[in-house]
Known about the structure:
Shape: globular
Number of domains: 4
Radius of gyration: 29 Å
GO cellular component, one term: cytoplasm
Subcellular location: Cytoplasm
Distance between the termini: 36 Å
Domain DALR anticodon binding: 431-549
Largest sheet: 5 strands, parallel
Structural class: alpha/beta
EC number: 6.1.1.19
CATH architecture of the largest domain: 3-Layer(aba) Sandwich
CATH class of the largest domain: Alpha Beta
Main location: cytoplasm
Number of helices: 21
Number of strands: 15
CATH superfamily of the largest domain: HUPs
CATH topology of the largest domain: Rossmann fold
Amino acid sequence: MENEIRSLLGTALGELFGPEAAAVNLVLEVPRDRSHGDLATNVAMSLARTLKKPPRKIAEELVAHLEGQDTFLESITIAGPGFINFRIGSSIWHHSLADILKKKTAYGRTHAGEDFPVMVEYVSANPTGPLNVVNARAAAFGDTLVRLFDAAGYKVASEFYINDVGRQIDLLGESLLARYEQVQGRGEGQIPEDGYQGEYLIELAQELDAKEIDASLADKSDSEKRDIMSRHAVEKLRAWQEKDLKAYGTQFDRWFYQHELYPQGVEDTFKLLQEKGLVEERDGAQWFRATQFGDDQDRVLIRANGDPTYFLADLAYHTSKESRGIKRSIDIWGPDHHGYIERMQSAMEALGFGRDWLEVLIVQQVNLLSDGKQVKMSKRKGEFITLQDLIEEVGKDAARFFFLQRRAESHLDFDLDLAKKENDENPVFYVKYAHARISGVIRKATEQGVSESQDADLSLLKEAPELALIKVLHRFPAIIASAAAQREPHRLTTYLREVAQAFHLFYHECRVISDNSDLTSARLALCRASQIVVSNGLSLMDISAPERM
């Protein structure tokens, strides 16, 4: 309907004021005061300077022009200095309701993305320990964004990048070797000063097959032993991470190991930059001329000792993405990587992909609150910090919903006590309870011998709460499209709370099962449509939609 109104306005503007006016950016919004109408535009105020007319006068001419046409609009009114409000006829809303009932699980899906190929790379935590709460937030955000892209018609792929090369992996191997020696009772087993002290390495060491490990370590040098234990540590920890993410409802199309880039991918990327004349040698090191592309300094690609930098590996990884047909790489990074964005986008421009080819979204820190106080991130004190612990504490559904309630770039206070409440104060409980209540109404009707009718007369739905609910349900496809386009999954949680609120009002104001069989059928159809939208919305966040609570 929004598109139809834009078309009507565009035609009217062209006929009244010429092509320049018709080309203006038309903004349609739901009025804050819903009594004013269903949609509103400030186009008259936007054109006032261009047309050299008072906005109210422009609005009056537009309304007079539109009122003479036979449209689906029930009324067009002017408010304030020149806002134009549109009220849509009830038959259109009834048609929208029928569309929901027809499409069922497909309702909400659009072709807005036009099969544009995007890759969302997210979490990508180092394989050096269990996933933490910031990883949990990134997982909920990234996974929901992938689902939104798919529903909005993009060709989307998801990937987890495993940083399994470098000094931190060497330290991990040395730390696991020390823990293994301890577990086997062969002395203290000295962990490196800057190694990994976590008790999870004791658990990992206990899981290793001693006979197999001892055989593989026999007659090996210290560096060889370190590398062997590094490989075991990476695979074990990656498996743990994958298991926890799966329990959290998050899966990836591919787990990409950094070591896959060596040597070919790294060498090819370096040569590509060389061929473009963007590499120069300084003090034995190879530098990328990043300042030519807006970076604040040039960057080292290969150190004087011949070792490639992480930066070069990252360029090789993104070159790999582009070679796989990805037209937009959306990377979800933690707050400590903010300063890395300009460096990477400069390099993407240098490689010929364009700065916009790489889009970086930052997921901010999380503060866990219990009894109104911040939970200290200390495993030694027995206070959880891992994704697995969070799932055990509040459940997958609550964790995901709470992480998705705010913009990713905003700091988040996660109230653990609220997440465990089973009342309307808890937003995820409120939405899930709406689904359970709807299911209960439909179930009660069936038990009373009242069946849903495929031919229900939806025109009987005339009460204000009925129409208000239908109007909210109608917005679902637009919510999906905008949440995907703006990379804002929090729009979904806000919307579902609005649906739940509208349904609860309808439920209290309008008796669903009554002696009027035709009205009962129509209201049951509205219940079913509400159930479809809530279920579809929760599914996009991989949150369960219970039949009973």
